[in-house]
Design a protein that fits this description.
single chain; Rossmann fold; seven-stranded parallel sheet
């Protein structure tokens, strides 16, 4: 029987609105890895609207150009720099470039990651290493460089690591990414304690389903089949990208200073959803339309 009272969570204010005081980030430089597309760009945009200077680091010239275009449209100071977050020398050079442009960034957004669905038995050693190297090692290497510079300067700072809810639950089909994101979550909790005495705040930010152009093919396919997944989530809607950006700007703001070591999930309670009775089990191979496994 249909319940006519179902309406889901209200839609957010329009893009461009903000709960923070205009100019909250005047004079602040924000360093964003993977900030040229998708959710990284959405987060960078909200900092830019509040007055921040934006540094975007990426391996892709195309993504750097997209960041330049987006931030310029917001009249935000923007500096882009090529960077491979798996390489500590590349990271150091990227921060040197950022410092030359805007001074030492006060906020770091670790958004860059690698991810694709694959049954564990089909995953090559190289696939495992690549995802863990970018998502976990890369996040640590960038965080380490940023933290060391602030420790040496004796200046406060804020770090936000973009995570995933399967860091808690596991992620069938994403063993590599789930393991890496669990490490990222643990890193948040560890470094918040280590670096808190020096004024460095460390938090995590976990997005739910926020449709964007950088989603993997499997997620895009699910959206097509389920009409934005509105009936599949407790909120009865997907996230709007500015909602994730607003969460990030609050966590790093003067109003969120006492929040550290916390991972904030912004997903309309979707990851906590449970059913009274379990549906039939469908293997990852079946969900992905793969034939039965054969070692040949």
């Amino acid at each position: 029987m249909a319940d006519d009272n179902l309406q889901g969570l209200p839609m957010p204010p329009a893009v461009g609105a903000t709960a923070l005081t205009p100019g909250t980030y005047d004079g602040v430089a924000v360093f964003v890895t993977g900030g040229g597309t998708g959710l990284g760009k959405a987060i960078a945009s909200e900092f830019a609207r509040l007055g921040a200077s934006i540094v975007v680091a990426s391996r892709s010239d195309e993504h750097l150009a997209a960041a330049e275009e987006a931030m310029t449209a917001l009249d935000a100071p923007i500096h882009t720099v090529a960077c491979d977050i798996r390489d500590h020398e590349s990271i150091a050079a990227a921060f040197d470039s950022a410092v030359e442009a805007f001074g030492l960034p006060q906020v770091l957004i670790n958004n860059a990651a690698a991810n694709f669905p694959v049954p564990a038995e089909d995953m090559s050693p190289n696939a495992w290493r690549t995802v863990v190297d970018i998502t976990l090692n890369g996040t640590f290497f960038v965080t380490r460089e940023f933290g060391r510079r602030h420790l040496a300067a004796g200046t406060p700072a804020s770090i936000i690591n973009v995570g995933a809810s399967y860091a808690w639950t596991g992620g069938p089909g994403f063993a590599h990414s789930a393991a890496a994101k669990a490490g990222v979550k643990n890193m948040v909790e560890t470094l918040a304690v280590e670096w808190g005495p020096y004024g460095i705040q460390v938090n995590g930010l976990v997005p739910g389903l926020f449709p964007h152009e950088d989603m993997t093919d499997d997620i895009q396919g699910n959206l097509v089949r389920t009409h934005d997944k509105d009936v599949c989530q407790p909120a009865l809607r997907v996230g709007q990208r500015q909602e994730l950006g607003w969460a990030a700007t609050f966590l790093a703001s003067p109003y969120g200073r006492f929040i550290s070591g916390h991972t904030l999930v912004v997903d309309g309670a979707n990851w906590q959803r449970r059913t009274l009775t379990n549906p039939p089990v469908v293997t990852v191979r079946d969900q992905m339309g793969k034939e039965p496994f054969s070692s040949a």
